[in-house]
Design brief:
Blueprint (H helix, E strand, L loop, with lengths): L1 H5 L1 H16 L3 H13 L1 H32 L1 H26 L4 H8 L7 H13 L2 H14 L6 H25 L3 H31 L3
Helix pairs in contact: 2-8, 2-9, 2-10, 3-4, 3-9, 4-5, 4-7, 4-8, 4-9, 5-8, 5-10
Length: 215
């Protein structure tokens, strides 16, 4: 308990970064949104479950592999922190760039006809989208490196990974439930630029903090 209390600021920072990543539209989120709008709630939930499974896979790979490396190689943490910080700055750039663009591309993506798939195929598609996206693994590396200083216990690692995964499952499922209704999607589209701009600022602040924090 003392170890967890000691690292609570780091854990909170990791949660905030992960929440910002979840709320920033990317390939996985847009797959959930478009599937929910075009094919209904059940398909949207199946897509969300597949995306979560991909996130779970990357979370396990990042936490187990990174923990082992950090135990034996002190210099690895510095490399990880630099890579994670640069990735967060890249996300900030993309979010701010998206905030400056009109909604035409989003409208086209959601109004195109989408073939109806079985729930199993939809799940596997969501899993493949997240598993084959290299950004997902770098996001988890950034999250763990931000929330896992040297000397952190396995309990602290479990709290970061478990908390983020639970948050991800909640958010992915909520996307599927909300965007299977027309009014919610229209409300999101009208506020998209503000959301992207806010996420861009959050990503930039997290990236700068990660790059400038001493090990």
């Amino acid at each position: 308990m003392n170890d967890i209390a000691q690292h609570l600021p780091h854990i909170a920072a990791a949660y905030l970064v992960y929440l910002a990543a979840l709320l920033s539209p990317g390939p996985a989120v847009m797959a959930i949104v478009s599937t929910s709008i075009g094919e209904g709630r059940r398909s949207g939930l199946a897509m969300a479950a597949g995306v979560f499974a991909g996130s779970f896979t990357w979370a396990m790979a990042a936490s187990i592999g990174l923990a082992a490396l950090l135990t034996h190689y002190a210099g690895v943490l510095q490399v990880v922190k630099i890579a994670g910080g640069l990735y967060l700055l890249y996300l900030a750039y993309k979010a701010l760039r998206s905030a400056s663009r009109p909604d035409a591309a989003l409208q086209l993506a959601t109004t195109d006809a989408v073939p109806v798939r079985s729930l199993k195929r939809t799940f596997l598609l969501g899993y493949a989208i997240h598993l084959t996206n290299p950004k997902a693994i770098f996001a988890w590396v950034a999250i763990i490196s931000l929330g896992l200083p040297q000397g952190a216990s396995p309990a602290a690692v479990a709290l970061i990974v478990g908390g983020c995964l639970l948050t991800g499952l909640t958010v992915f499922t909520s996307y599927a439930l909300l965007f299977s209704t027309g009014p919610a999607y229209r409300a999101y589209r009208s506020a998209r630029r503000g959301i992207d701009a806010t996420m861009g600022v959050l990503f930039a602040a997290a990236g700068i903090k990660l790059l400038t924090t001493r090990i």
